[in-house]
Amino acid sequence: MKKGAKKFIYNFIKCEGITATIAGIVILIIFLRRSSVTIIDWTMFTTIVVALLLSGLSKIIQAFIMNKLEDSVKLTENYDQLTQKYTNKMITYDNSRVSQDNLRKCPPKYKQEIRIPVICEYELEQCEIEIEDSTAQYELPDIIKEHFDELFAAHSRSKIYNQLNIRVDDWEYKNKKLIIKTSRTTYFDSLVTNRAMDFQWHNGLTIREQFEYGPFIHTLKESCLSNHIGFNGFVESSDGYIVFVKRGNRLSIGKGTYGDSVGASLKTKYALDRSGKLTENGLIEAILSEITNELKIQREELEEEFSDRKHLIAAYRDIVEGGKPQLLFYIRSSLPKERIEQNFFAEVKKSSKIHQRELLEDGKKLLWIPKTELDHICILPNMIIYQGKTYRMMPSAAASIVMLIEYLKNSGG
Question: pTM for this structure?
Answer without folding.
Answer: 0.83
